[in-house]
Amino acid sequence: MSAQLMPNEAAAAEAPLHFVDPRAFKARTREAVDDAHLRRSFRSAMDFLQAKRGAHFADRDGFEALRHVGEAVRQYSLSKLPELLERLEQRLTERGVRVHWAATPEEANAIFLALARAHGAKRMIKGKSMVSEEIELNHRMAEQGVSCLESDMGEYIVQLAGERPSHIIMPAIHKTKEQIAALFSERIPDTPYTEDVDELIAIGRRVLRNEFRDAPIGVSGVNFMVADTGTLVLVENEGNGRMCTTVPEVHIAITGIEKVVERFEHVLPLFSLLTRSATGQAVTTYFNAISGPRRPGELDGPAEQHLILLDNGRSQAYRDADFRPTLQCIRCGACMNHCPVYARIGGLAYGTTYPGPIGSIISPHLLGLEPTQDLPTASSLCGACSEVCPVGIPIPELLMQLRHAAKHEPEAGHAPLAGQASAKDWKEALAWKAWAWLNERPALYGGALRLGGRLRELLPTAQLGWTDHRTPLRPAARSLRERLAEQRSE
């Protein structure tokens, strides 16, 4: 199987995913909006996921009560984050898990490469992990001659296609069965073309089965980490996560530093909210609680286990109380499923690991505001994302704060974001200063209104970006102030 993937891996190494630049977001949105098939597919998928979630949260009061608990758990955990991370490291070390800290994607990839070389590994088998997408693990390992094969079916499909996941829960949601059938027929040797979904799944599983047995290193993500018990919790539906964490001799888990909770009972409400919000399930098929490598007398499990804790901008969000709620996210994807913008353009248009509303508030911390300054503006501020967020993240408020941060220097008492004020425009700043100056002088302001009304027909019909999709702005022939003055004189 590794040989079958080599052409794709070589292409990925030549054109790593960093070429999907968030700066080109506006251009990609125009392409996506012009793709009628993509819009129909996403609209249908989002309607389906909304209906499934709605069926599990039909009792609005019940949902609000459970959400209040989930929000409280996440806020409590974040309030003690440094302490909980230290306790987690101590407990995991006691259980035989080796804990590594990575400040950047480069450091995380260096740890993976060092472990692969220490074990002479040329291949890894990986379960679903958005943090591994965040550090572009597959591509960085391919550059060093190490194959990293996705075992989640959706991730496997987008890996074969050389694409990014377009959704954090359903990576290949943008693909039709016809596209997948053609992809399998082209990329997997001796595979006939078939559009039968069950047969396509069976083909993928047959290909992946031997990899679980032969790969010396298994890689996984982590949904929650329990500090008191030193437990890594992994939630999944396909069973590939359990295979990746138990069959290979070495298991490497990677996750963000924010995923820690204090006690195991704190996992339960978050698990209930996660599964219902993500896929409309009461529970997932597999709930894995990992507590260390194989012990003497045990028949399965890895002989060696590692955990990589990644920062990558999370501490920047943590240190500012206004942005800290961003880290409450449990990666359910409900905000994407209910976002009218995401439903129109899909996930690939964003050019970031995390698309949709959650991506628009977390990506500026991971990548800086300079390349992501357009993402917070990709919102109608309708509030649907915050209404369905299972842990109460005030996404619209955070979007507004990021919009402000992109154009203004930090205020006193606030730590600067990476790339803050990168979208500042001197022409816009000058216009606002002129507006403020005029509004502070009532006589001049009134005169300007009268003059604007008299010259309204001379105003240009092209008014920057406003008239791209709207009619030109024209002052009223008579201002409200003039009308009121006329009424008083009558």
CATH topology of the largest domain: Rossmann fold
Trace the largest sheet across and list its strands: 1-10-7-4-2-3
Helical stretch tally: 23
Helix content: 40-55%
Radius of gyration: 26 Å
Whole-number count of domains:
2
Global geometry: globular
> What class, by secondary structure content?
alpha/beta
Oligomer: single chain
Q: Indicate the mean pLDDT.
A: 91
Terminal Cα span: 89 Å
Count of distinct strands: 10
Q: What share of residues are in beta strands?
A: 5-15%
CATH class of the largest domain: Alpha Beta
Question: What composes the largest sheet?
Answer: 6 strands, parallel
CATH architecture of the largest domain: 3-Layer(aba) Sandwich
Low-confidence runs: 1-17
**CATH homologous superfamily title of the largest domain:** NagB/RpiA/CoA transferase-like
Question: Can you describe this structure in just a few lines?
Answer:
This protein is an alpha/beta fold. It is 51% helix and 10% strand. It has helices spanning 2-14, 25-33, 36-56, 60-79, 81-94, 105-118, 130-134, 137-143, 153-161, 177-187, 197-214, 240-246, 267-279, 314-319, 334-337, 340-345, 356-367, 369-372, 384-388, 395-407, 426-439, 442-454, 480-489, and strands spanning 97-102, 123-126, 147-150, 217-220, 224-226, 231-236, 250-256, 260-261, 286-290, 304-310.
